[in-house]
Amino acid sequence: MSSTVAEEIQRELIQTRDLGVTEEGERLIELQIGPTHPGSGHMRIRVWVDGDIIVRCDPDIGFVFRTIEKLSENRIYMKAIPLVERPSLLDTTPMTIGYINALEKLLGLEPPPRAKYLRTILAEITRIASHLYGIGILAIFLGHSTGFMWGFGDREPFIELANQLSGARITYAYVVPGGVRRDMPQGFPDNAEKALRYLENRLEDWYRIFINNPVIERRLREVGVLRKNDAVRLGITGPNLRGSGIDYDVRVAEPYEAYEELNFMIPVAEEGDAYARTIVRFEEIKQSINIIRDALRKMPSGDIIHPQIARMFNPLMKKIYEETRRVKFPGLFASLKPPKGEATARVEAGRGETLFYIVSDGSPKPYRFRWTTPSYRNAILFKYLIPGHRLADLPAIYGSLDYFPPEADR
Amino acid sequence: MPEPILALLKELLGYNEFLYRTIIGIGYMIIYPGLLLVVVVAALLLWAERKIAALVQLRYGPLWISRRIGGALQGFADLIRFSFQEVIIPRRSDLVPFLLSPGLALLFSLLPLAFIPIAPALRPPIYSDLALLIAIAIISLSPIFIVLMGWASDNKFAFIGSLREALLVVSYEIPLIISLLSMGVIYGSLDFYKIVERQNMLPGMILNPFAFIASFIAILRITSRFPFEISEAETEVVAGPYTEYSGLMFGLSMGLAYIKLYMYSLIVSLVFLGGWLPIQGNGSVAGFLIPSLVVLLKLSIVSLVAVFLRAIYGRYRLDQAIRVGWIYIFTISIASLIWSIALVYGGWVRWS
To answer: Does the complex come out with an ipTM higher than 0.95?
Structure first.
């Protein structure tokens, strides 16, 4: 491409003004899909349709902008842990892992191996739950109510599993600097195995009713094709990137936590259409099952919190930690002052790569807190994938991108 | 003819053929098998649809209203709620068509009942030997009012929805009419009594399976069942032609599909499933009550299959559905016509 981005935007602005009235008269209709539309989510999608064909699509994001970055800059480091979970409620642990990894880099802490494995397990549990949620939303966008209900229903064993591990169903705040909050309870591996086996059986039903369903297949195949070079040029991440045939996953490219020691594959599909993206999500669920099994098998014993932090426990905390393996925060955490410097951390969340960048000036609050979420990076696809398709393809493409507006807006 | 009613009327009013026919006719249209039964069946069908889908989807479905009978009164509760909700009329709507079209659509989807018999012993209010043709002709008027709803609403989504409805109805009603009339060719009559009578040996769906398949799929589309629930696709056009409607009129327009489903299932069960056969008799019980219940049973099986598809399929895209309509369903309906003509001219079916 020869023209700069600014020129492109300028040209498109002019184009927007010209749309609506063309030489043939009022040929195009502008539709405002959202923010109060059953098929929009927390965003507005402005589309211009010529008959049934969308000629232009303009995603208007920011309806659920919650100033997470600025809020984090006005709070102590500990208080940002639950805060970064809020935007993407289905996919909480990868976000906290990303934030904590950046913070640990600033502090120079390395969590003990057992804590790393526990973090990995919880991250994969949330990945399964997040993918099931995304597939459920895709299903209801295509009018397939069974897929919607199953997607939400099959999340339940995994939410329950996360509940056993962390004590909360959705927002776990499980990862703390230097380790995790709680150790695995007794019987957790058995319960996890039960849930994994349940999902494996259910995936066969899923394939029968959703993936191999002729109507769903016709709705998704050849729709919203994202070519390889476009995916790279637009900076797409996550399953959407891998659905376009690019084998890139942060878990492999830049391993964090325990991923280096675990056996798993990165599913890739070549077609780049909505169907391929959906298949990639299903295959990732299967791989997450493998990861959880492998991690439970290889789980090392030992501490769940860095000894440097354990040393600061008062006697009561020490007693609680030894008896119940639960970490209470020492008083130092309230005024945690990382040394001056900056740190970045990348994590593969359910929807793609998320990046944290923290600048510390030595005070108890971050000087700058920057966070890029996968949905934010994938939002551009609305503009490029949808034009040329029919109006009914808009929900299909939207659902197949697994775009989550609160996560994009932060 | 139910004799007790006849006797009572004779006693009260003397023998007055015209008055008696009028009263029976009004009862036929308003109570059984008319409006009242249609509303009851539609409400139960709505409940059954949600309950069956819930069964597939691992949840309860309607439950808390009348818990002991599994929430069966949910449809009636919804009806009451719709009746008492505020009706909001958009300022820019075209008032007269906006207010009239739901009622007219309802009227034209109920009127065919005046020509359709439900039992051997009671003639419908208007008897005609072209009843099948007339019934289809009348019921195919109701989509016009759905298109009118979208037009009068002055809402882009309603407008798109009504255009979708118009496109789809055109591409599915033609195969439906062809395949139903090809049954008329086989039976050599468009009179429902003769049609039912001539299925004595074999039901119509075996005589001409092409016609049965084509008309069942076309009915799925015309009554907005999945996978053809396109004109009111929620995630695309909100509620399609009904977007601007509220209160009772919204209830009416949502119930319209079920009322049409009732009517088309009735026609299908008479034309393809042998109607009230194997029951044949006289008198108010053997000639009216039991046969009509048999018809109701067949009708509910047809419509339950139609509503069950919600749990299996998503919805087609508009162009895909139109392509399916013209390429497959239209071809099957033409095949059914050729099949019928071949059967008749080949001499395999012969009616005395």
So the answer is: no
